UniProtKB/TrEMBL annotation:
Coiled-coil portions: none
Matching Pfam families: HSP70
UniProt feature, compositional bias: Basic and acidic residues: 49-68, 306-318, 332-353
Highest taxon in the source lineage: Eukaryota
Protein name (Swiss-Prot/TrEMBL): Heat shock protein family A (Hsp70) member 4 like
Region (Disordered): 49-80, 306-353
Entry keywords, A to Z: ATP-binding, Nucleotide-binding
UniProt similarity note: Belongs to the heat shock protein 70 family.
Gene3D superfamilies assigned: 1.20.1270.10
InterPro entries: HSP70_C_sf, Hsp_70_fam
Entry GO CC: cytosol; nucleus
Molecular-function GO term, any one: ATP binding
């Protein structure tokens, strides 16, 4: 009764396990072929292991007779040859073929064509560089002149001209980045010359204003220097008493005209504004200064003639004093013969003693 009650308790569990196994077999039933193949592989592995073990126990030179005793086996000739061939090894020599091939060389015609193409490319690069330089020159002139119009050139241009020139510079700048982006070299050269027609007068006024004071000062100093020489000549200065009076009159007249020219130009220039063209240019003042040097310097700096009177007197004195020196020389000359005889006599007496 107790056993039956326990079986009744575990019966649901047993049925459940059996049910799960049945479901597993339904999903993937066991294949008999797989089981057979696995058994064959296992048997083959076992046979190979037994064969290797037996081969390890018996050496190749030993055999087992029918009585069970081990005897040495004699190798055959074929086996010996095989062993010798395995030990020695085989050497096979093969000829290595060597082929020579010359480097490829270009033909003269093809080489000349390459050289010609290279020259053309160099020329194209040169032309392109010149074109870019011309374009950059226009752009640089626009930026530089526009900057100076607001600083150093501002005093030398009227407001009306300033507005016109600023508009021209702005139009040129826009043209460079639009239609003038890729133009031939000559187009840029012409554009630069057109801009300089507007800018050079202003630049010239500025340069004249800066350099004119120095040129006028140099000319004034030279005129004053010549006037001092004329004044010293009038005062009978011994440094200029050898100068020709007629030539000095020419110098006085020239200096007077130069002074009048300088004063008139300076007065006229002072009346003009900075925006007007100068009355006298720096080049004219420099030319006037050189003309003064060429005319006056050879006259006022003429060297004095050499004085020969003093030399003649010295020569005459030397000739007059010559005979006296000769007489005094004969009178004062000692009598060497007499002294020598006395010296010989005294020496002779000493020898006698």
């Amino acid at each position: 009764h107790i056993i039956f009650s326990k079986l009744m308790r575990i019966q649901p569990l047993i049925f459940k396990v059996l049910h799960l196994r049945i479901m597993d077999y339904r999903r993937e039933p066991p294949r008999l072929a797989d089981y057979v193949f696995s058994l064959q592989d296992k048997m083959q592995v076992d046979q190979e292991g037994a064969h290797q073990k037996c081969h390890a126990e018996h050496t190749p030179e030993e055999e087992i007779d029918h009585t069970g005793a081990k005897t040495k086996s004699v190798p055959s000739d074929k086996q010996e040859r095989l062993n010798q061939s395995i030990k020695k090894g085989k050497v096979k020599s093969i000829d290595l073929p060597i082929q020579s091939s010359l480097c490829r060389q270009l033909g003269q015609d093809l080489l000349n064509s390459y050289i010609e193409n290279e020259g053309k490319m160099i020329m194209q690069d040169k032309l392109e560089k010149e074109r870019n330089d011309a374009k950059n020159a226009v752009e640089e002139y626009v930026y530089d002149f526009r900057d100076k119009l607001g600083t150093v050139y501002e005093k030398f241009i009227t407001p009306e001209d300033l507005g016109k020139l600023s508009a021209v510079l702005e139009d040129t700048e826009n043209w460079l980045y639009e239609e003038g982006e890729d133009q031939p070299k000559q187009v840029y050269v012409d554009k630069l010359q057109e801009l300089k027609k507007y800018g050079q007068p202003i630049q010239m006024k500025y340069m004249e204003h800066e350099e004119r004071p120095k040129a006028l000062n140099d000319l004034g100093k030279k005129i004053q220097l010549v006037m001092k020489v004329i004044e010293a000549y009038r005062n009978k200065d011994e440094r200029y008493d050898h100068l020709d009076p007629a030539e000095m009159e020419k110098v006085e007249k020239y200096i007077s005209d130069a002074m009048s020219w300088l004063n008139s130009k300076m007065n006229a220039q002072n009346k003009l504004s900075l925006t007007q063209d100068p009355v006298v240019k720096v080049s004219e003042i420099v030319a006037k200064s050189k003309e003064l040097d060429n005319f006056c310097n050879p006259i006022i700096y003429k060297p004095k003639p050499k004085v020969e009177v003093a030399e003649d007197k010295a020569k005459a004195n030397s000739e007059h004093n010559g005979p006296m020196d000769r007489q005094s020389g004969t009178e004062t000359k000692p009598d060497t013969t007499k002294d020598n005889s006395q010296h010989a006599k005294s020496s002779g007496e000493m020898e006698v003693d």
